[in-house]
Amino acid sequence: MQRIGMIGYGAVAGYVAREAERNGFEVAAVIARPGREAAARAALGGVTVVNAAADLPEALDVVVDCAGHDGVRAHGADTLARGLPLVTVSVGALADNELYAGLTAAAKRGGTRLHLATGAIGALDALSAAAAGDLQEVSYTGRKPPAGWRGSAAEEVLDLDRLDAPAVHFEGSARDCALAYPKNANVAASVALAGLGLDATKARLIADPTIARNIHEITASGDFGRFRFTIEGMGMPDNPKSSALTAMSVVRAIRNRTEALVIG
Ligand SMILES: NC(=O)C1=CN([C@@H]2O[C@H](COP(=O)(O)OP(=O)(O)OC[C@H]3O[C@@H](n4cnc5c(N)ncnc54)[C@H](OP(=O)(O)O)[C@@H]3O)[C@@H](O)[C@H]2O)C=CC1
Ligand SMILES: O=C([O-])CC(=O)C(=O)O
């Protein structure tokens, strides 16, 4: 049986933990912030709670980070340096060059790997294959209902309560996008890391009162041809900012560790 460690215990982590156990994995421990131990235990059902990667139990097969940028910043490198493979949804954190270098160096030191979960988006397989040829242009547009942007930088430029038409609140590089919207634009970083990189990938974010789902679109062109990919993701019931597919992609990543046949 695979034993899993987790970082974070929110909406994505809760789904992952439930599904992991239903699929025969054991959630052995979770890293929570100091003072949040009881909340973590309540959310994940009596699991061992620690505050640092050094305190995770010895015999773990994989650690999954569902805590967002702060979680991978605080615990990612220590987890990898211990030799534990890490699956993360906090992909946008890698837009910080120093953190990127620290995580990849720690993975090498630990003889392990950092796995970027595909998260709320798809088509990253086609994009990364296309990047093996000459990939010329990649654009990403992220569209969410106004409630999906609450607590984000969108509130600095828009009155989310009074929108009656779609409004663009960010346009720029995927790097700037991922850093400015840590809870909402991990997808921009995933698209960039799969394809043209964080500085050459164009990103646009839209608050749209006419939609009820999180809509992500990629357009790409290059020597391979061109594609347009659109997904309308349902938000998680307990956090509409995060699409349910995010949690499902982590479950897929951990199930792939033990299955005889793996797609992608
Ligand atoms: N790659 C992708 O496509 C997507 C990625 N995401 C990322 O996933 C993250 C999590 O989403 P979701 O579950 O919906 O968010 P929630 O806010 O529901 O959960 C976040 C959890 O992380 C915990 N946490 C935060 N900082 C730390 C830390 N330093 N150490 C340990 N735990 C920590 C929080 O606990 P507490 O606050 O009590 O400390 C909470 O349990 C998002 O913030 C976003 O960055 C989301 C959607 C798509
Ligand atoms: O869940 C989503 O739809 C996208 C998201 O928040 C992110 O990219 O961080």
TrEMBL record:
E.C. designation(s): 1.4.1.21
InterPro entries the UniProt entry points to: Asp/hSer_DH_NAD-bd, Asp_DH, Asp_DH_prok, L-Asp_DH, NAD(P)-bd_dom_sf
SUPFAM superfamilies: Glyceraldehyde-3-phosphate dehydrogenase-like, C-terminal domain (SSF55347), NAD(P)-binding Rossmann-fold domains (SSF51735)
Catalytic residue positions: H216
Keywords on record: NAD, NADP, Oxidoreductase, Pyridine nucleotide biosynthesis
A Pfam family reported for this protein in Swiss-Prot or TrEMBL: Asp_DH_C
GO molecular function: aspartate dehydrogenase [NAD(P)+] activity; NAD binding; NADP binding; oxidoreductase activity, acting on the CH-NH2 group of donors, NAD or NADP as acceptor
Keyword Membrane: no
Catalysis performed (reactions): L-aspartate + NAD(+) + H2O = oxaloacetate + NH4(+) + NADH + H(+); L-aspartate + NADP(+) + H2O = oxaloacetate + NH4(+) + NADPH + H(+)
Binding of NAD(+), residues: A120, N186
Pathway linked to the protein: Cofactor biosynthesis; NAD(+) biosynthesis; iminoaspartate from L-aspartate (dehydrogenase route): step 1/1
Superkingdom as given in the UniProt entry: Bacteria
GO biological process, one term: NAD+ biosynthetic process
Aspartate dehydrogenase domain residues: 164-251
Domain Aspartate/homoserine dehydrogenase NAD-binding intervals: 8-116
The family this protein is said to belong to: Belongs to the L-aspartate dehydrogenase family.
Misc remark: The iminoaspartate product is unstable in aqueous solution and can decompose to oxaloacetate and ammonia.
Protein function: Specifically catalyzes the NAD or NADP-dependent dehydrogenation of L-aspartate to iminoaspartate.
Name listed for the protein in its UniProt record: L-aspartate dehydrogenase
Taxonomic source organism: Sedimentitalea arenosa
This protein's encoding gene: nadX
